[in-house]
Design a protein that fits this description.
Two copies of one chain form a homodimer. Chain A has 720 residues and is mainly beta. Chain A contains eight helices and 36 strands. Chain A is globular and about 100 Å long. The termini of chain A are far apart. Chains A, B: Its EC number is 1.4.3.-.
Chain lengths: 720, 720
């Protein structure tokens, strides 16, 4: 049975790599252990996945692996599964539990209960149930009947997590739904999002009962927070804008010619059966969890340790429309649903170009039964333009290399919306984490002819509400070892002064180590950089500590009032950088339980509050960045990607440009367009200028427009 | 003779497009007119290039062109050449002049003199002369002799512009030089930059005489601004780090396999003989000037006007080492030298992949004689990953398109350093201006074992000084016409309040039109966007003015003391955005004459000071962004590219996502890596999953891990 990596045969539990995902067999073992232990209850499974070993244990194993001393006798961390589930009593009450199962013995070794106020992430069954319960609900039927809809419509229901309860409210587990009408059509992919209905049914999840129908405002600027004067014909002014090509009201472009990426000798990377990836001096493992999707582990470059673990940790999407109950529109897509479970099954030729390696994941249904979700992660190489170039103006010799990247990508769909996440490694020792926001913006009904301060009308009758996306990346560094120091570095002016800055051009770099766990704000106007340094190891050239660095992206943080529930349940979104002391299992910026939370518990703010020593210590850095998304008409019906990138780069880690040995091979498949510019002339394959030298680098053509200069022998200058 | 576009035959003056570059014939006419008019003097030519017609005239012509009413009788702006040159009197004194020559009559129609304090840009002859004058100079020879250099060295001289004179100094035209030793070697491309010598000779340019040798500090932190204790053996501790592949002390990587971009049907763009480019609904012309290199003119999308002109306007590179005379290390690479004249002659297969169209430029030597500089601009298509994607979770149908970009790129070399500039147009109506900094960082000698607050030791004995790169992009918009309004848009919190923001999640967008010419600071924490709107034209969907927008990049601006010459000569570098009223020929952020300036004259600050009405007017927007570059060891010997991007995007300009009609064709050349991960399995060409439907879009595979949901007929809900 396939593992994450699709290998046909899976080694026994005891010899699998500690960072490998559970096999289907291992999931079965874990499932059975829980069913055995909880046999007097009904069990609703949520997740079964591998326990990441405690760092202290795993590091010993990895050190042996890197030293080449691994043997059957090397102590291994215990191979364990994490099983998340509800026990259901006869009165239908649920208890939210987590068992740790030892996979060698097949026994439960630990049982954890979620705190009373906590709700675990939603699973598919709950979304399906939501629709079923809605359709049967008299409350819901009545609400729909009030709209007096034409028979040409169907009703489409998008289940959503229910946001944060109002202060002092103690709520049972709820699910809410956004409701749309959908034109009946033989094509099931007509776009229903252009027909929003102004109601939100709320379900008591465990009771399976719609407990209320929230009414939504449909007014405009002139109505303030009031409901609006809504038309009787609630959808009469709405219009469909389709996105599937066969339904478009305009023809597809016919003048876009194919652009293929071919790799005739195959990829430059290798992926082993236990998800070890080697590429261009990089060596790392790709892990997978239902919550985070792809995670990078044990990242080395040229035999030197860079990161212990790199992950997308959390994101929150609060909506800025103050009219109740829109304050309950706030998703935590990782904590409320799970990026791994929402990951697209990627398609060859669609989501990447070139030679692609796909990774699968083992997920479970609510009975705990495993199945393989295919192609949830893709790995491929990409050209990112010129990597470095220099032309010697004396000889006109140009040396130019391209920048090749290795991309580890996954894409998640959350009802209307899509995110594309990618880890990109480059040949110069850099790592980029990229987010692309796309999909359909969330819309609500607005009265005919009105506009609103709370969003933009992107389709007749459809107001796309202003909102934010705030992401958290978790960087667990291991810069030449696990004892690292965070150093802030700012470039500051020095007043003009005869003694220290006589002509006023000088500026200074102010460096400060972070000694205690803390939060840091981005500061672009002082050029704030955050260095992750190993102060125990000095770069022999610069005599400064070896380090990686990043520039915190100066983006807007949480706009909601700090006293609001919206803000309190996402305390991580108050600062751009958090520096915490490493603690096993502390992976989630907003804490483990985000669904329906009123407060961030066990997130980065709590971790910082421990006020621990982080200097020359096992430190974790969290980067938060956001996108305030006030929609444009151009975002409808599916928005063009909006891209953000987080860059981690070596800073005195190496003793020179680590990409210096990248060959500047001439790409002989490139073609020059004929000078009359017609396409017909472009297809011959032949280089028409430049010569290729034996070592693969390129000699430039002489040109008459260089700045001339010569080198002069010293003796010529000494002789007179 | 070739025009910019390399056409074999060039139309006569009168019928050439007003935005076309001068042909070789036209340059000859202009040259002769000046020689005729100035015949009692020696003439040193600097530039001969086309005069861009006054906007009032050109717009009439372009309107006729777009209306399809162009005829031989359409009034044309006069075809003119701009000739920049010095007249040289018998006493060797120079006068810096500019003539406007009418190309139809062959007569000078206007003569302009540069202001007394102004110095024009440096030309190749002056760089060549600098080296020749140095080598003959007794002062220079003596200085070199003091170093007592071994015969194994040669001397390499990098001429530089001379920066800004100290206050109250009135200087003649100067050129300075950075001096390096170079190991004698049969390979002329050994890297001399690792052997900096601590002197800067300064030449009186017109007298052709080294007037002084500035001594450079070589001390470290402990020496403050003092000269340092420098070793007798000034280069003994320096070491070469080579970058040309045949000289590397490590082998080149052998595990990077080819990645080819093939376009079997040719490019999707066309380039006409008069530089009109059409691609994916975009239509624009590429112009060329010796100062700016490639310029985009008359940019339309789908028949609608977006921009009148888009250019890289200026950049300044001040060095932050306060020890004199390093305050004179401040280049304006566009104004002091000229990006067009410093442009690389690009090589097929090196600087871009795929199918490339190259454009040439006609440049002149100091005798005014034209020659064609080949391949100074390249145009090609590029894949930029996913353009938009949505998966219908009900049907699992994914629609995904890729984002194709058209790239207009040029690369400039300025002695040690390189910049790669690109205009990128995308299918969603967006335009990106990208800068990549690469090449060799500028180093000075530092005593053995020392470190410095003013830079980083990147190679033994070589201190790479801290510096900034501050760029200015000039955007001359024409959003559905020439009367545009700049609107700032900020997203601001609203305090929690029962009446206006009961749950605290609401935030407001505050929009303000710019009424008078002004400067604006980037403000990322209020999500400041700058909209370029046409308030006379309302988007029918959103009911807001049609617009394009950009987010000013929040980067550090000029660090030098505002009272310093370094800062005063680059007033543009004090703000991120400048909004000015259009004025013919006002193209340069730091003014026309930057070389050896003490003050920015005629730059954006002066334009703003005119305090003109800019609302609903012919407005120009300038975007300034910077890169504070405190070098890393990894930047040596050639730095990996550091990338910055400026994004201009439609905001309610269109009535939907303009890329909605981009076909989601499956790329059938993509290949999946075999499940055992070996390269040998990767080379078969065949899609192994997914099916291609007739219309070119892709149906996803069903998967068991979707959130299930169904659409419900309204009658079912109405019936109970």
């Amino acid at each position: 049975m396939p593992s994450l990596n699709g290998a046909a045969t899976v080694p026994k539990v005891a010899t699998r790599h500690p960072l490998e995902q559970l096999s289907v067999d291992e999931v079965e073992i874990a499932r059975q252990a829980v069913l055995d232990a909880r046999k007097t209850f009904g069990v609703l499974f949520r997740n079964i996945y591998a326990v990441e070993p405690a760092k202290a244990q795993l590091v010993k194993f990895l050190n042996a692996e890197h030293a080449g001393t691994l043997s059957p006798d090397t102590p291994r961390p215990p191979r364990q599964a994490r099983v998340q589930y509800d026990t259901i009593s006869e009165d239908r009450s649920h208890e939210l539990l987590e068992s740790i199962v030892d996979l060698t013995s097949g026994k439960e070794v630990e049982l954890r209960k979620a705190p009373t106020v906590a709700q675990t992430a939603l699973i598919k069954d709950e979304f399906v149930e939501f629709t079923e319960v809605c359709v049967k609900s008299e409350k819901f039927k009545q609400a729909i009947q009030e709209f007096n809809l034409d028979d040409k419509y169907e009703i489409a229901i998008d289940p959503w997590p229910c946001g944060g309860p109002n202060p002092d409210d103690v709520e049972p587990r709820y699910t809410q739904g956004l409701i749309y009408a959908k034109l009946k059509h033989e094509n099931p992919d007509t776009n229903h999002y252009g027909f929003p209905l102004p109601i939100i049914p709320v379900m008591d999840t465990f009771k399976k009962e719609i407990i209320r129908i929230d009414r939504l405002a449909t007014g405009g600027t002139e109505d303030g927070l009031a409901y609006g004067t809504g038309p009787k014909d609630i959808l009469g002014h709405c219009k469909p804008v389709e996105y599937v090509p066969e339904l478009l009201d305009t023809p597809l472009r016919t003048d876009l010619k194919p652009l293929n990426v071919s790799q005739p000798d195959g990829p430059s990377f290798t992926v082993s059966d236990d998800s070890l990836i080697e590429w261009q001096k990089w060596r790392f493992r790709v892990g997978f969890t239902p919550r985070e999707c792809a995670v990078l582990h044990d990242v080395h470059y040229d035999g030197r340790s860079v990161l212990y673990r790199l992950s997308l940790s959390e994101m929150t999407v609060p909506y800025g429309d103050p009219r109740p109950p829109f304050h309950r529109k706030q998703a935590f897509d990782f904590g409320d649903v799970g990026a791994g479970r929402a990951a697209n099954n990627l398609e060859l030729g669609c989501d990447c170009l070139g030679v692609i390696k796909y990774l699968d994941a083992v997920l479970v249904d609510s009975e705990g039964k495993p199945s393989v979700s295919k192609n949830v992660v893709c790995i491929h190489e990409q050209d990112n333009g010129i990597g470095w170039k220099h032309t010697n103006f004396r000889t006109n010799r140009a040396v130019v290399t391209r920048s090749r990247e290795l991309v580890v990508q996954f894409i998640i769909t959350l009802a209307n919306y899509e995110y594309i996440f990618a880890y990109k490694l480059d040949q110069a020792g850099g790592i980029t984490v990229e987010t692309r926001a796309t999909g359909m913006v969330s819309v609500v009904n607005i009265d005919p002819g009105k506009t609103s301060p709370w969003g933009n009308v992107v389709s007749p009758g459809a107001l796309a509400q202003n909102h934010q996306h705030i992401f958290a990346i978790r960087v667990d560094p291991a810069i030449d070892g696990h004892e690292n120091t965070i150093i802030t570095e700012e470039s500051l002016p020095i007043p003009m002064n005869p003694k220290t800055n006589p002509w006023g051009n000088g500026y200074e770099i102010v460096r400060k180590p972070v000694t205690k766990s803390t939060a840091i704000h981005a500061s672009p106007f002082t050029n704030l950089n955050v260095k992750i340094a190993n102060t125990n190891k000095i770069n022999p050239i610069s005599q400064r500590p070896v380090a990686y660095k990043f520039t915190p992206m100066p983006t807007q943080l949480m706009l909601a009032d700090p006293q609001s529930i919206v803000a309190k349940r996402a305390a991580f979104a108050q600062h751009h950088v958090w520096v915490t002391k490493y603690k096993d299992e502390e992976l989630f910026a907003a804490g483990e339980f985000t669904n329906q939370s009123q407060l961030e518990i066990g997130g980065v703010a709590d971790a910082v509050a421990r006020n621990e020593d982080v200097e020359n210590n096992d430190v974790v850095v969290w980067n938060v960045f956001g996108l305030t998304h006030n929609p444009r008409v151009e975002d409808w019906p599916v928005m063009p990607v909006e891209i953000h990138q987080f860059h981690l780069r070596p800073a005195d880690f190496f003793d020179r440009n680590p990409a210096l040995d990248v060959p500047g091979q001439k790409n002989i498949s490139s073609v020059e367009v004929g000078r009359n510019g017609s396409a017909a002339d472009c297809c011959h394959n032949g280089a028409t200028n430049g010569t290729e030298s034996a070592n693969g680098t390129v000699q430039g053509e002489p040109t008459s427009h260089r700045q001339g200069s010569v080198a002069v022998p010293v003796e010529q200058l000494n002789g007179h």
